[in-house]
Amino acid sequence: MDGTAAARLTSLAGIVGLWVVASVLTADPLVLPAPWALIEPLVREIGSGELPYHLWRTLVRVAWAFVLAMSIGVAIGYLMGTRPRLDRWLDPWLVVFLNLPALVLIVLCYLWIGLNETAAIAAVTLNKIPNVVTVVREGARALDPELGAMARVYRMSRPAQARHVVLPQLAPYLAAAARGGAAVIWKIVLVVEFLGRSNGIGFKIHMYFQLFDVRMVLIYALSFVVVMLVVEAAVLQPWEGRVRRWRTA
Amino acid sequence: MIHVDVRRKAFNGREILRDIRLDVAPGERVAVLGPSGVGKSTLLRIVAGVDTAFEGRVDRPDNIAIVFQEPTLLRWRTVLANLLLTHRGLRPEMARAMLARVGLAEKTEDFPGQLSLGQQRRVALARAFVGRPELLILDEPFVSLDPGTAEEMIALTEGLIAETRPAVLLVTHEPREAERLGQRICRLGGSPATLAC
């Protein structure tokens, strides 16, 4: 565990080092400021409450879209993976939605639902569901039929089968979907905010983009990256370690 | 009383089983002998209620246990949990006693992956007997074991059957196993397969 933590920190320090080198080479703080040049405005943004407020708005949208996309995507993916007939009917839909550009879905949601929170979250969710479905469908196809037969003969209840037979087999696929999910979702949330919201990180980046303020764009983008790294280390990795315990025991 | 009447079973239009009638009295042990690929496992899955896509009917008790060719354990749950999860209302001390009976008293908190294949099969046996089933279905449970281990497993199974007295339906391609565990031996053969007792 200490070894992996050390590797992570060194690797992150490498990124910062690269940044320092690049900022020295460009030698123009308007194009690429050095990392320490961000500290003063960062403290100011946190002090004024601006950054925490917009960060929170974005986080709420990410959380909503994540929960919705995961639950709907897992349900559809499981059904498609276990029912070949349904799979044949829904697969063309999946291909259509997988290939619909995120931007198109976002614009259409804003046009049809209106410039509001529902449209924003619906757009992100719709963008993410097809990916979750694809990953979970693979997992559902790989379910061991013998274990299913065993569970039925021993008359395990439906909830018990879901919890002890199906979900542990799907766990690696769910983890992959969640991992990829969180990262993709926050990128789409930013686009959604950029195009049609009046708060959130994406809105602030839009504003500072128009002011050509690279410093503030970096501050807002990186603050969310930090939040995601914390979520990864504090939530996803311990959870994965727990569900994988039986493999390493 | 177990009553099996399978008029027809087909996979993708190819008929596998036809006109199979079999009655098993409580506590009776029936061995179904037949070459590999004849449809023995298909018949077992129908009797167990796993496969319901056939013409005919099967009357079976509610309390059934099954032992597959592979251990078929929940590898992400402990050995003890494997017994408890498959039997609602089973007391942990009963499960522990059964695990001790098959020689795994020390292994209750291990995951199946930490056990040898022979030990995993013992867990599968313990799981089958711990619920005192009215019908026990054995699908080639001693296949691919070396002769020494197979003998040990057969002896253990014999002992457990004598203690719990379930009706037993065993399928195997090994006449010696059929003779040792079965009171009555039926042969499954032909295409589509029929049963001769």
Describe this structure in words.
Chain A is mainly alpha-helical and 249 residues long. Chain A is built from 11 helices and no strands. The two termini of chain A are 16 Å apart. Chain B is an alpha/beta fold and 197 residues long. Chain B folds into 2 domains: 2-63 and 132-196, 3-Layer(aba) Sandwich (Rossmann fold); 75-131. Chain B is globular. Chain B starts with a strand and ends with a strand. The mean pLDDT of chain B is 90. The A-B interface holds A 146-147, 149-157, 160, 164-165, 168, 171, 243, 246-247, 249 and B 45, 48-50, 62, 64-66, 68, 70, 72, 74-77, 81, 85-88, 110-111, 113-114, 127, 131, 137. Chain B: One of its GO terms (molecular function) is ATP binding. Chain B: It holds the Pfam family ABC_tran. Chain B: InterPro entries: AAA+_ATPase (IPR003593), ABC_transporter-like_ATP-bd (IPR003439), ABC_transporter-like_CS (IPR017871), ABC_transporter_ATP-bind (IPR050166), P-loop_NTPase (IPR027417). Chain B: This is ABC transporter ATP-binding protein.
Q: Low-confidence segments of chain A, ≥5 residues, pLDDT <50? A: none
Q: Structural class given helices, strands, pairing of chain A?
A: mainly alpha
The arrangement of helices and strands of chain A along the chain is HHHHHHHHHHH
Number of helices of chain B: 6
The count of β-strands of chain B is: 9
Binned strand content of chain B: 25-35%
Q: For the CA atoms, what is the radius of gyration of chain B? A: 17 Å
Level-2 CATH architecture of chain A: Orthogonal Bundle
Largest interface (CB within 8 Å) is between: A-B, 20 and 27 residues
CATH architecture of the largest domain in chain B: 3-Layer(aba) Sandwich
**Average pLDDT, all residues of chain B:** 90
- Tell me the domain tally of chain A: 1
Alpha carbon gap, first and last residue of chain B: 17 Å
Report the CATH C-level class of chain A. Mainly Alpha
